[in-house]
Amino acid sequence: MLENLLDSVAQNSAFRHIHPGTKLILCLGSLVICLVSSSPYVPLISGVVLSIVLIVPARVSPVLYGELLLGPAIFTVISVIILLFITGGGEVVWRFNPAPWLNLAITEGAIREGTLVLCRVFGCSVSLFFITLTTPVTDLFNGMKRARIPFEIIDLMMIIYRYVFIVYDQAVEIWRAQVMRLGYSRLAEAVRTFSTMCGILFISSWNAGEDLIRAMDCRCYNGVFPSLGRSEPMRMSSLVPVLVYLAFLSSILLVTRGGLVMPP
Amino acid sequence: MKVILEARDIRYRYPRGPEIIRGISFHIRRGEKIALVGPNGAGKSTLLQMFNGMIRPDSGTVLFDNQPVRYDNASLRQLRQRVGYVLQNADRQIIAPTVWQDVAFGPANLGYEGEPLEKIVAGALRHVGLEGFDRRPPHQLSGGEKKRVAIAGVLAMNPDVLVFDEPTSDLDPAGSQDIMELLDELNQEGKTIIVSTHDVELAYPWADRAILLLKGEILQEDKPEVTFGDPGIVRMAHLSVPALLELSMELGKRGYPLPERKPRSVLDLIHIIESRARESESRTESGLITVFNIDRCNIAELPAWLRNHPGTAVGAMGTHAKRLAAHEGIVLEFTYGVIDKCILRSLRGKNSLIMTSSSMADRVVTRVEAYCHESGNQIKVVQAEIA
What we know:
The complex is a heterodimer of chains A (264) and B (387). With 264 residues, chain A is mainly alpha-helical. Chain A has helices at 2-12, 20-36, 41-55, 62-86, 108-134, 137-146, 151-180, 187-218, 236-255; strands spanning 92-99, 102-107. Chain A folds into 2 domains: 2-135 and 233-255, no CATH class; 142-218, no CATH class. Chain A has 9 helices and 2 strands. In chain A, strands 1-2 form a two-stranded antiparallel sheet. In chain A, strand 1 and strand 2 form a beta hairpin. Chain A is flat. Chain B folds into 3 domains: 3-239, Rossmann fold; 244-278, no CATH class; 288-383, Cobalt-precorrin-4 Transmethylase, domain 1 (3-Layer(aba) Sandwich), CATH 3.40.1010. In chain B, strands 6-7-8-3-9-10 form a 6-stranded mixed β-sheet, sandwiched between helices. Chain B has a 4-stranded antiparallel β-sheet with strand order 2-1-4-5, covered by helices on one side. In chain B, helix 11 runs parallel beside helix 12.
């Protein structure tokens, strides 16, 4: 399953031991810069640089990384194609008149807009993938605890995170058992089968919840959910490059703020 | 030995269900290894849950350390700290999103924090052979590893009694043997172990005493060779006679002289067979068993020692010894039932070496001595002097 895969990539990442705060600064910083930039160069550069960082020093498999990018890529390309036809402005570059009542045209403005959206989605996705592929969720829990988020919320999040995988596995098992007996062959059948699966999952989650209380009781639960306190301190050796990189990105942002500079 | 757990005529009925425990009385002594055996639905799990107060019997008394169990919150907390319970499904027992947090859960709730807590967790993880797994999330572990995490979580509370519900039910055979050996190791350290199972092959050589349960009543309670030795009773309980026992019965029918104690291991069986063959054959001199104490000897010297002593087979007892062997690249010939396998080898005139920790080293000597005493064979055990 994808979530499991992402989590194990993060567990094995070479950046695993860098303080999550440093990684969050990099991720959120580049995300914001990509979003505010009115030129496609900034998100493009950010996306390419972070991708190289992810593949080379962080040792994320390029094949896996490519597969992950494919998801947003398909969605974005479709959106951009539609955008090309529905936005206007500037000279018409290409026109297509298949019928008298249908006039399709691509203008310079539309190309500009499309390029910007494409690069922005690329830059922002890579920023988010950076944190996903280098920081396991459990490290984020620790960060939240240090950020003074109420422990009730964090404890609940930890239990939910633990059980998501168990319930998901169960759902996959039930779904397979249903497919094996041709459960989703017709529409009406599919609706009925799916609702059965939901019912079974609800009951088994309820049972798992009761078992959870029992398991906690067995171990003298008294309101304490320990957290793995030990984590690497925020080191200058990783924080400084991140800040330098963000400053570099911001300076490009300032230089290109006039909008799209079309290549000659 | 002092009695640690006792049941006096306990009965229990699930709400709107049939009576599942129907008047059971027994006692368990400190340091015993007990196997609770019975078919599905015999009431094993229900009975186990009474040991740490998860289920309160409708009538009768459960006593822990000669005191009747009380069911107020403070007493239950105290009881649950001393009686650790490992559920059948490790996924249901592991609560936290990382191994470290899960093992720390019990001691943290008992009031430990900071360095003492870290020490306890590190100790428990080392005990079950999961060092370095601290930050791993449970869903990335194998079945055997999850079981070990669940055991470590209970061990971290330092209980006197460990209760296991079907400890090997979803493990592969090697994983099962590993877990049974871990239970042996814990027992050697003085913990009382109670295991419920329907795997007679596993319970038979392992347990000090076997309690056979059927339809909420005790059918038979005795040493395993007696409990499983009556085919009638075993059949009644929907179980099977252990292969070793069946084989020895057949040998008896064919005129082999059977010793008083029924065989509990392959070694015992070989003894029966060889004792008849020996009368006609000339004896080979038995091989030497060397005990390599990993706490005292220098492991780095072992490969050189082994090169100087060709033909020596190496076995490792205990998780720590096995890990050390893997780390040093020492090829292990035996990983479970090690002492018996070394004795068997010794009887063929071959030498062997057992890697183990201080806590288990004495056990090698006692086991070999007991065997020699019973069989009349002479096998020498020496402590390795590899500094």
